[in-house]
Amino acid sequence: MLEHTNNPLYEELLKDYNIKLDHSGISGERIAKRLFELSQIGFVQVGGVKRPGFSDDEKAAKALVKKWMQEAGLEVSEDGAGNVLARLEGKTKRPAIASGSHVDSVPSGGNFDGPLGVLSALEVVESWKETGYIPDKPYEVIIFSDEEGSRFNSGLTGSQAMTGAMTDQEIDQLHDYNNETLEQVLAHYGSTLESFKAAKRNLEELELFVEVHIEQGRKLEQANQPVGIVSGIAGPAWVEVEYIGEAGHAGNTPMIGRKDCLVAAAELLQSIPQFPKALNHTAVATVGKLTVFPNGANVIPESVKMLIDIRDINEEPRDQLLDQLCKQAEKVANAHEIRSNIKVNTRIQPVPIAKDLQKRLAKSLNKFNIAPTYIPSGAGHDAMNLGRFIPVAMLFVRSKDGISHNPKEWSSLNDCVMGIHVLKDFIEDAMKN
Predict the structure, then answer these.
(1) Could you say which of 23, 202, 349, 420 is the most buried, measured as most Cβ atoms within 10 Å of its Cβ?
(2) Which residues of the sequence carry a binding annotation for Zn(2+) 1 (predicted)?
């Protein structure tokens, strides 16, 4: 039995915990205690945590987990990108099965997004230690750096470094919220740009990567299931649409003959939701950023810029949606007799999860009487970068009210532990194949 820790998060997690879920070496109390201890690093008074990538707090969170990894008997190292690699040798020297996530957060983020995946992967090792299980293949627990992107406004930094996906040009363009370059940030962290680039790994060393993550949605709640299967990870495409009209006095310019680009932008914005619906049930399109110039209450707007975020778990329909919205943007501009500049400035390849891996996850879910629920992930994950080179799988754990990136983010300890049991069973099955 772990020493009792008197704190609200710890007590809240254990309040309704079903102790019968403690079996096969897995401890709900250990997970609750560790989630609490991580919650104290970067704690903010308004609630939640603030642990930006490559910050002192992210580093401290990694150091704490590294201590737990070493106590569990893992060989622990850290690469030049700050990724923590903890390894347990198996009976053979075959490529390793790996699992993990991240410990950085958005500002005032929750306590489960990232840490749950790391602690779930580590708890598998703890369970093996307690039951005397020795895996046939090596097993790795990985903590990736700067997944959330709150440091550079561009996330998945650690997994991009590990896969060598970041070009020199992209590295040069990275500036953080203090306008520091990646090189300067790494120097403060205790690394170098040269070491960062050297973090590229021979991915033939890994057979499979599986990530546990909170759902950040409501499908599992709707299905009344604790754990679900990710069917694919959406790849975003960002389209910047600029409409250029003609500024004028709001009072003295007649309505007839105006070239009001904000009215045109509003028409485009209103039409966007119909396009994904007509395509399939996994495609989405969102406008979350709109810039109006000169943005005066009594001035007809001269220009408007909007950013359209387009996502799907399959590349072909995603690109089809991208093409349709670009044509719609041009059509609206022509109808309003204004100029347009349409530019695709981000296009990331989606990562579908292999059907065979989904079936194997379903097999593990069925062992615990969980009906498989298949969920596309609209958010990006480190598994997405690895999935371009090696097979990847993902499990979602139910999120209360679908809330994430928020201090109210919550997954019950029962659901978290059920996710660990499923992960453990899936990994042990993968060890045999």
Answers:
(1) 420
(2) 102, 113, 213
pLDDT tens, 144-198?
999 998 888 778 899 999 999 888 988 998 889 899 999 999 999 999 999 999 9
pLDDT at 363 over 50: yes
Going by the annotation, the residues of the binding site for Zn(2+) are 102, 113, 148, 213, 405
- Give me the mean pLDDT over the 98-113 stretch: 96
Q: How far, CA to CA in Å, does 170 sit from each of 98, 99, 174?
A: 27, 27, 7
Q: Is the pLDDT of residue 3 over 50?
A: no
- DSSP annotation of 187 reads H
Starting from the edge strand earliest in sequence, which strands make up the sheet with 235-244, in order?
Answer: 284-293, 303-312, 235-244, 339-347
| CA–CA separation, 171 and 373 (whole Å) | 38
235-347 belongs to which CATH class? alpha beta
List binding-site positions.
Answer: 102, 113, 148, 213, 405
What pLDDT sits at residue 12?
A: 95
The rounded distance, in Å, linking the Cα atoms of 211 and 376 is: 14
211-245 per-residue burial string, b: 16 or more CB within 10 A, e: under 16: bbbbbbbebbeebebbbbbbbbbbbbbbbbbbbbb
**Range list of H helices, 17-114:** 28-39, 56-71
Residue 277 CB coordination number (10 Å): 11
Sequence ranges of the domains in the chain: 8-234+350-432, 235-347
